[in-house]
């Protein structure tokens, strides 16, 4: 960890806890800042806040009072989940108080170069593939960020011998100032999180922040099949390296005659890859590009791609029972992600879907339901999804209370060689704290089947 002094004796507000807030508060306290933590959860129900108080950090819980700004903070480290529409955050913006997320802290203290991965879909798979390929090549990678491990915690142990592979959300990228990855990746860009960002323009701008501080010495890997993405990052100073699943590229990564190709060099046959789905081919090409830039050999790449079957909650194989195969795609929190999962299968699918109602309809999902023989629906969006299913001609549609009940219901509807797929097309927050919790409940329910 770099020995930095820029936060020493500064009054800093850490707004919102969860994992990133706890780590940020402790780190800033260690770096000599006068830290105040503000979290919405009441103190008596808040073990994180209680632990920080024991460290000597000032803690205010139960609400986000705007009056806190009277204390003269010089910096706010905001939990990514708290929107900028929050009155306290709005007040800070009006006062000109800088607002960052903990990824900025991680960058400032890290001795390791960073590989930053963002995009609407595919971030976690791409991040994990890069980590696995670097590890296979006997590098010393560290994995962090939105994937589950707090970046500023990992950065504290990182050395110049490491490479930090960091998954980044649009929420995190809105709060950067100097963050500059050596290699940045934008997997794809589709309309998402408009309940947080308000507009497509703001969402896209947040994603493009990943490259705003890059220089001519850095690399930006982008999906060449999306013209709107290419247009978005024209301002970058980084060297752009594209990838494409739709056409052969002499510069970058693509597919030619059934082979993965990078800069004209064949790496391996596509049919040797263990991970199913065209959407995953995008993720693979992005990951291959990153590790080739870093000098990883083809054998290390091949060994990973021949065995890697996916990340937990991302089209994850769970179990085969009586020739019915179960997949957990709980991370599919939007229509596009669910559509990508459905496209990965040629077998008949029983789709388990539903969740938080963000106000959208599901008409865009209809073209991808051709292979769906039955739907088992739950959550706030069950009625809307049923309407989409009826319009697509799905004849067997059932509604149940939750994911746990959906699993046996789907099994009863199934026959041999069917795919039973949890791909909700919705966020989990109407019933479950996270998509991980939802996916774990699905897995547990599958293993309980008799």
UniProtKB/TrEMBL annotation:
<dbReference type="GO" id="GO:0071555">
    <property type="term" value="P:cell wall organization"/>
</dbReference>
<dbReference type="GO" id="GO:0005737">
    <property type="term" value="C:cytoplasm"/>
</dbReference>
<dbReference type="InterPro" id="IPR036615">
    <property type="entry name" value="Mur_ligase_C_dom_sf"/>
</dbReference>
<dbReference type="GO" id="GO:0009252">
    <property type="term" value="P:peptidoglycan biosynthetic process"/>
</dbReference>
<keyword id="KW-0547">Nucleotide-binding</keyword>
<feature type="transmembrane region" description="Helical">
    <location>
        <begin position="12"/>
        <end position="32"/>
    </location>
</feature>
<dbReference type="Pfam" id="PF21799">
    <property type="entry name" value="MurD-like_N"/>
</dbReference>
<keyword id="KW-0472">Membrane</keyword>
<keyword id="KW-0961">Cell wall biogenesis/degradation</keyword>
<keyword id="KW-1133">Transmembrane helix</keyword>
<keyword id="KW-0067">ATP-binding</keyword>
<dbReference type="GO" id="GO:0008764">
    <property type="term" value="F:UDP-N-acetylmuramoylalanine-D-glutamate ligase activity"/>
</dbReference>
<comment type="similarity">
    <text>Belongs to the MurCDEF family.</text>
</comment>
<comment type="function">
    <text>Cell wall formation. Catalyzes the addition of glutamate to the nucleotide precursor UDP-N-acetylmuramoyl-L-alanine (UMA).</text>
</comment>
<feature type="domain" description="Mur ligase central">
    <location>
        <begin position="117"/>
        <end position="290"/>
    </location>
</feature>
<keyword id="KW-0436">Ligase</keyword>
<keyword id="KW-0812">Transmembrane</keyword>
<dbReference type="InterPro" id="IPR013221">
    <property type="entry name" value="Mur_ligase_cen"/>
</dbReference>
<dbReference type="InterPro" id="IPR004101">
    <property type="entry name" value="Mur_ligase_C"/>
</dbReference>
<keyword id="KW-0132">Cell division</keyword>
<keyword id="KW-0131">Cell cycle</keyword>
<keyword id="KW-0133">Cell shape</keyword>
<feature type="binding site">
    <location>
        <begin position="119"/>
        <end position="125"/>
    </location>
    <ligand>
        <name>ATP</name>
    </ligand>
</feature>
<dbReference type="Pfam" id="PF02875">
    <property type="entry name" value="Mur_ligase_C"/>
</dbReference>
<keyword id="KW-0963">Cytoplasm</keyword>
<comment type="pathway">
    <text>Cell wall biogenesis; peptidoglycan biosynthesis.</text>
</comment>
<dbReference type="GO" id="GO:0005524">
    <property type="term" value="F:ATP binding"/>
</dbReference>
<feature type="domain" description="Mur ligase C-terminal">
    <location>
        <begin position="313"/>
        <end position="426"/>
    </location>
</feature>
<dbReference type="Pfam" id="PF08245">
    <property type="entry name" value="Mur_ligase_M"/>
</dbReference>
<dbReference type="InterPro" id="IPR036565">
    <property type="entry name" value="Mur-like_cat_sf"/>
</dbReference>
<keyword id="KW-0573">Peptidoglycan synthesis</keyword>
<dbReference type="GO" id="GO:0051301">
    <property type="term" value="P:cell division"/>
</dbReference>
<protein>
    <recommendedName>
        <fullName>UDP-N-acetylmuramoylalanine--D-glutamate ligase</fullName>
        <ecNumber>6.3.2.9</ecNumber>
    </recommendedName>
</protein>
<dbReference type="InterPro" id="IPR005762">
    <property type="entry name" value="MurD"/>
</dbReference>
<dbReference type="GO" id="GO:0008360">
    <property type="term" value="P:regulation of cell shape"/>
</dbReference>
């Amino acid at each position: 960890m770099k020995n930095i002094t820029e936060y020493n004796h500064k009054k800093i507000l850490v707004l919102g806890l969860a994992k990133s807030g706890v780590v940020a508060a402790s780190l800033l306290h260690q770096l000599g800042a006068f830290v105040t933590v503000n979290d919405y959860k009441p103190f008596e129900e808040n073990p994180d806040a209680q632990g920080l108080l024991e460290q000597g950090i000032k803690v205010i819980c139960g609400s986000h009072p705007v009056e806190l700004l009277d204390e003269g903070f010089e910096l706010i480290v905001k939990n990514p989940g708290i929107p900028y529409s929050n009155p306290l955050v709005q007040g800070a913006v009006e006062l000109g108080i800088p607002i960052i997320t903990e990824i900025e802290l991680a960058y400032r203290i890290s001795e390791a170069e960073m590989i930053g991965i963002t995009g609407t879909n595919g971030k976690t798979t791409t991040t994990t593939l890069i980590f696995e390929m670097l590890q296979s090549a006997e590098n010393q990678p560290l994995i962090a960020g939105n994937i589950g491990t707090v970046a500023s915690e990992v950065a504290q142990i990182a050395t110049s011998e490491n490479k930090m592979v960091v998954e980044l959300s649009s929420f995190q990228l809105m709060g950067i100032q100097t963050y500059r990855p050596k290699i940045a990746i934008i997997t794809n860009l589709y309309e998402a999180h408009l309940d947080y960002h308000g507009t497509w323009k703001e969402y896209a701008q947040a994603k493009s922040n990943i490259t705003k501080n890059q220089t001519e010495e850095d690399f930006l890997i982008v999906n060449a099949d999306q013209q709107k993405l290419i247009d978005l990052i024209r301002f970058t100073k980084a060297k752009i390296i594209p990838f494409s699943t739709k056409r052969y590229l002499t510069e970058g990564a693509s597919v030619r005659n059934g082979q993965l190709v990078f800069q004209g060099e064949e790496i391996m046959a596509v049919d040797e890859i263990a991970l199913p789905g065209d959407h995953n081919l995008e993720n693979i090409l992005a990951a291959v590009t990153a590790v080739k830039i870093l000098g990883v050999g083809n054998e290390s790449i091949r060994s990973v791609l021949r065995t890697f079957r996916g990340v937990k909650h991302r089209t994850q194989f769970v179990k085969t029972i009586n020739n019915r195969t179960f997949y957990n795609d709980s991370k599919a929190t939007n229509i596009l992600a669910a559509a990508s999962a459905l496209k990965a299968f040629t077998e008949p699918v029983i789709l388990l879907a539903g969740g938080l109602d963000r106000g959208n309809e599901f008409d865009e999902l209809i073209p991808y339901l051709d292979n769906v023989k039955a739907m088992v629906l739950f959550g706030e969006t069950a009625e809307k999804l049923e309407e989409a299913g009826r319009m697509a001609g799905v004849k067997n549609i059932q509604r149940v209370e939750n994911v746990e009940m959906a699993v046996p219901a789907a099994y009863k509807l199934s026959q041999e060689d069917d795919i039973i797929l949890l791909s909700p097309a919705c966020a989990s927050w109407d019933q479950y704290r996270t998509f991980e919790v939802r996916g774990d409940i699905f897995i547990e329910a599958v293993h309980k089947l008799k």
